[in-house]
Specification:
By secondary structure, the chain is mainly alpha-helical. A three-stranded antiparallel beta sheet has the order 1-3-2. The radius of gyration is 34 Å and the shape is elongated. The two termini are about 50 Å apart.
Amino acid sequence: GPSVSAPPTKRPAKAAPPTADPTQQLLSQLASHFAALLAPMLAAPAERYYDARTVPGEVGRRQFLAAAAEGAFPAFRVGNRLVARREDVHRWIEGRPVEPRPAPRARKGPKARSAETAADDAKVLARAGLVPRDRPKGDS
């Protein structure tokens, strides 16, 4: 998957050799200047956005994608990833109604066989030439 890289470090601009063309020197200085201005905006977009993999734990991946598709918060694609601003996702999370999770149901044991079912089973086994063993009461 996509990995988040560390923000670019600021490197001092290399001084152009004194024999270089003055236009080249100016272009080099402008490029360094714009790189320094753009670095904070381009650095660590993961700090400003969530995608389906980085969304907080109380919201699952599918829930994030479904909410974005429904327009619960503004989202857009960056390559194959659907991303949304963290502030918008948090606002949506905080505005959702809190529904308590249902308690887990207790597991039930095996159903007791009725006498009718046991008699039917014995007939089927007898037709097949098998003799059922006597079982202790309560075993299924």
